[in-house]
Description:
Blueprint: H1 3-24, H2 27-41, H3 53-67
Helix pairs in contact: 1-2, 1-3, 2-3
Amino acid sequence: MSKEETKAKETLLIDLTRTFCIQEINEEYAALCEKLIKKMGRKREVPFKRGKPEIWAAAVISTIGSINFLFDKSFEPYFK
């Protein structure tokens, strides 16, 4: 996969996560997801080269959410 293809996939992932986070959670989560995706894009072996972008976007949101207690009712924001 070329650098241009990797960059296009990275942009698609950022768009998917940003759209979801702004609609369902908040702007801060969108920024955190973008930061994680950009960090993964700098790796020697870019993990999101393979697989569906929708699955990767969900994984990124889930990972950021788990770290920040998004699925815990006693914290705000909360998401099922």
